[in-house]
Amino acid sequence: MIEYVLTRSKRKTLALYIHDGTVEIRAPLKMPQRAIDEFVASKEKWIRSKLAVSKERMSQRESFSLTYGDTVTYRGNEYPIIAGDSGRVGFNGESFSVPPGMTPEQIKQACVHIYRMLAKRVLPDKVYHYAKLMSVAPTAVKINNAKTRWGSCSQKKSINLSWRLIIAEDDVIDFIVVHELAHIKEMNHSERFWAIVQDILPNYNERNKKLRELQKRLICENWD
Fold first, then answer.
1. How many Å apart are CA 7 and CA 24, to the nearest integer?
2. By CB atoms within 10 Å of each CB, which of 25, 50, 96, 175 scores lowest?
C-alpha cells in the first residue's frame, strides 16, 4: 500500500500530488476513507514511477555542489567559476569571479550574489523595453527570491521577477517579461491575454517549451 498524506477540504473531487518524495491526497471532507484508498490503489503504478523520479531529483539536489573550474549558466550561456585576485565576487563578461579558498557552499552563495546583482541590472531594462512596446506602465519592477514562480504582476501593476530568471536564455526571459506585462491589461489567461503575448512574441509557444526544459533542470539544482 502506498503511504500518503491526506488533506481534506471543501473540494468536490480527489487530487493527487507528488513533491519531495511525498504523496499527498486532497479529498472532500466527507469522502469515505475506503474510496480514497481505492483511488490510491488504482494509481499505484503511476505513483511509484513518479516517486522514483522525485527521489532521484531530490538526490541530485542534495549532491549539488560548485567548486572552482565548474561552470554556471547566465542568460543561457556557460561561464567558468574562477578564483579572482581581487578578493571580490563579480562577473567580468567571461567568468564568475570569487575569492580563493572558499568552500563549495560559500562558492554557491557567491554565485547567487552575482546572479542577484546581474538580475537587478538586466531584468528591469527588459521590462521597461517591452513595456514601451506594449504601451503599458508598470508601477515598479522588483527582483525577489521566488522559488516556484518566475514572475508575477500585482493588482497595483507592479512586476515581480525571480532572480533565478537570469539563468535562462534571453528568449525565455523575454517571454516571462512579456507574460507579466500582459497581465497589466488582462489579469487572467484568457484568449485576449494570449493574443497580447502573441502580438509581441509570435513564437511564444517555443519559448515556453524552453522554459519547461529549464524548470526540469533547476529542480535538480539546489540554489537555496
1. 7
2. 50
Is the distance from CB of 33 to CB of 194 less than 8 angstroms?
A: no
Q: At what angle do helices 104-134 and 191-200 cross, to 10 degrees?
A: 100
Is the Cβ–Cβ distance between 172 and 75 less than 8 Å?
A: no
- Contacts of residue 105, Cβ cutoff 8 Å, sequence gap at least 6: none
Pairwise CA distance, residues 101 & 123, whole Å: 31
Q: DSSP character for 103?
A: -
State the pLDDT at residue 64: 92
Name the CATH topology of 71-219: Zincin-like (3.30.2010)
Asked whether 10 and 47 are in contact (CB, 8 A), the reply is no
Cβ(146)–Cβ(160) below 8 Å: yes
**Which of 75, 72, 65, 95 is CA-nearest to residue 83?**
95
* Contact (Cβ atoms closer than 8 angstroms) between residue 54 and residue 19: yes
Set of cell numbers at residue 87 = 578578493
Q: Model's pTM, two decimal places? A: 0.82
Domain parsing of the chain, residue ranges: 5-63, 71-219
Smallest CA-to-CA distance from 173 within 132, 222, 138, 129 is with: 129
**pLDDT number for residue 87:** 78
